[in-house]
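The following record pairs a protein chain with its ligand, 5-amino-5-deoxy-1-O-phosphono-D-mannitol.
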Amino acid sequence: MCGIIGYIGKNPERILLEGLKKVEYRGYDSAGMTVCRGGEFITYKEIGEVSSLASKVKLNEQFGLGIAHTRWATHGKISLENTHPHFSNNCDIALVHNGIIENFEQLREQLNLRKIECCGQTDSEVVAKMFDNLSISSLRRVLKNLVGSYAFVMLSKSGDYLYFAKNKSPLYLSKGDDCVIIASDPSCFVGYSKSYIELDDGDYGKISLKNTVIFNKNDEKINKEEKLLDFDFLSEDKSGYEHYMIKEIYQSRIVLENLIKKYQSVGLKSKLEEIKNFEFDRVYLVGCGTAYHAGLMGESFLRKSFNIDIFCEVASEFKNKNYSIDEKSLCIFISQSGETADTISALEYCKEKGGKIVAITNVEYSTIAKKAEIVLPIFAGQERAVASTKAYFAQCTLLFILTNYLKGESYEKPLKSLSHNIDFGDDNILKKIAKQICNYKNVFFIGRGNDFITAKEASLKLKEITYIFSSALPSGELKHGTLALVDENVLVIVVATDEKLFAKTINNVCEIRSRGGHLVLVTSLFVDSDVEKNFDSIIRITNLPNTLMPMQTILSLQKLAYFTALEKGNNPDKPRNLAKSVTVE
Ligand code: M6R
């Protein structure tokens, strides 16, 4: 993954650091920058987050050209030698890279034959070493040898241009009044420019304060249209919250209001209508991680209303399953970032087979949005915490909107009732349970029906930011194997909000209790005192019709994971080993 940024103008160190902070969601194993002033390179590299780099960088207001990088390690360990920028053999050219060069071993062997050695193990350094000068023709020559995905920004000691290239990794250019910025994410342009250029796969070129030169994949010189930088309620700060994660959980309320309002517009209703008019006989929902869980919820919503085949699949497994896809297949791809490589790959596969491609995404300029025929935005605003919270809430809400629209039923009325009754749980109880969770090495979440899907998402959230082993399973499955693990050292969190399924779940609760397991209940239902006795604690949430409970129940469970991460002393916004945007398969 990784985030990259290039800059020309005054104050390069400060602006590069600001930009790195904005793309840090793409990885935070190490960070580095190179600034060129007066024909000399000044380079900084640090292991860990951008804040470690920032503490070492000497700010300088004077004009300069610079590039910077925040890394999510793929090839090569987390070390200073593997931290970008990387340099050409004569050290005159610096390069930052996001993506994976698949043939880098062969390229390295070719370099070795020329007695050119790399200092580290990264694929990116191999590319840097392939340059002996920086020009459009040398860039073109190097690109012709690469197999894989890349967004590069490069500079040389002698030039006043930044060079760039893009293939399957995002890259954007922008010109402000006295500056140029190139970045993995247009959020880096906010405050410096009002428009930006979106590069397409195969594009490459160079940019200076005065001049922009872009070529396409056929080596033709091209002009690209500028897009307006329009970040709807993009909030840069934590608005008084300690972390982005908790701020984003609470933003679910605004996101819901926003969705209700936006999906009243003629434009969005016409997209829903286009899906309704499409004569499909099968529906596929595809995503990864949290987005996959939203897909499972969508599958459940749609199955209850339509008597056709509806499948939800993890994106990375989609192509292995031999699903039958044709022009009657409605293929819905769910992705907060819109850049997830596994999801893109499944999307391309369905597109080739003639399926109708719908994207549910938070980023309207993303790759997935661009590749889809119909885009249904979730309008959740930028999600910064790696653990997805408000996006999941929004994805489930949107799938509820879509299902009701296809059925010809109102979605506004029920969603307004969710908005009036939205319940984020009781902080005192959640904090008390969070403390208890820290005493366990193993946590299981169980549920039936939609509550099982909520349990899966809650379990992912807990393990992702607390590093406590956690697994979710249907309540009824426990006795088919996993019950063997249950003793007094195990905590089971039971999600039970469906009256019809409650009694059966309580049977499973008794099976756990009689083996010494500890239990927490999450429910919106009335619980009589005999049943209550089985539980160490109960998280009570406001009851709503069953179809709305998935959006309601997850909020307390997201907060439970958050409070547990705090108890463990973890930074919930940046869990170890992960990144926000997963652009490798
Ligand atoms: O950007 P996407 O929605 O495609 O991302 C998919 C997953 O990587 C993501 O949901 C991940 O599972 C989250 N970190 C979970 O909180």
